[in-house]
Amino acid sequence: MQEKEERMKQSRNAFAWVGMMLLISLPLLSGCGEGGGDKIEQAEKHFKLGAQYFEEEQMEDALRELRKAVELNPQHADARYHLGSLYHVLKAYSRALKEYEELLRINPNYPKVHTAFANLYYERGLMAWSRAVKRDQIAYWLPDTTRKLPFEDKDGLVALKQEYLNKINVDSADGETYSKLSQAYFILAGDEYEMAVKADPKDTTAQLYLGMTYSEQGYPHKAWAQYEVIKEFDPNAAELLNTILEQKEREEKDIEEAKKKGS
């Protein structure tokens, strides 16, 4: 499976590209939060400085300033978003999720909030998948679409995800649980991306990663349908998705051939 490293590299490069685009494209909505006074003004100063540090990749300084901004003004939605994004970059996933959840509470219509959630879930799914295939490439490279995860609603899925995480904490060599965990994350990601594109059909990040998420879930027809959607307004992103999906098709053929040889 020599293509594994290249696939992971391409996926991560794509993630970095759209992640940076997401931050750059988001307008800085100054003056967030209710009321007035010194704390609100000081929070805004810390936020702008933190956002600048983040853009310059001075992460420690950005973290200090953004934390101070939300401390002074807990209702500052922009600061919450950027702090969550920074935690995501630093792979502090639980903290990132907490900030996004608070952001959603503050402003359910905040631009890109569902895309931010989905990006986090997608990356966690990819990490769980890579750990599954490290245990058994043939068994876990492709998703098992014949077995559905046992959940009824989002709360059930979140509980199931936590159950899988608990199992992995007990047995970190459990490839099957890693595989199931990856699918739980990809389902969560897909739901969030679908909400994102419903809110903004030209959200390139959400459209691109929705196609990639469908692919990771084992739904190539849905993934190629996303390619057709993206092609209408962002040919570069469409070409990136095309490359990834074609590579996925080659991987599937390789796995099927490996299974035949092993049987």
Report on the architecture of this protein.
The chain has 263 residues and is an all-alpha fold. It folds into two domains: 179 residues, no CATH class; 84 residues, Serine Threonine Protein Phosphatase 5, Tetratricopeptide repeat (Alpha Horseshoe), CATH 1.25.40.10. The protein contains twelve helices and no strands. Helix 2 runs antiparallel to helix 3 and helix 10 runs antiparallel to helix 11. The longest helix is centred in the last third of the chain and has 28 residues. It is globular and about 70 Å long.
Give the SSE layout.
Elements (H helix, E strand, L loop, with lengths): L2 H23 L12 H18 L3 H14 L4 H13 L3 H14 L6 H23 L1 H4 L13 H17 L4 H25 L4 H13 L3 H12 L3 H28 L1
Task: Name the helix and strand elements from N-terminus to C-terminus, one letter apiece.
Answer: HHHHHHHHHHHH
N- to C-terminal distance = 18 Å
Largest sheet data: none
Q: Over the alpha carbons, how many angstroms does the gyration radius reach?
A: 20 Å
Provide key terms for this protein.
78% helix, mainly alpha, 263 residues, globular, Serine Threonine Protein Phosphatase 5, Tetratricopeptide repeat, 12 helices, 2 domains
Concise overview:
With 263 residues, the chain is an all-alpha fold. The protein has twelve helices and no strands. The protein has two domains: 1-26 and 111-263, no CATH class; 27-110, Tetratricopeptide repeat domain (Serine Threonine Protein Phosphatase 5, Tetratricopeptide repeat).
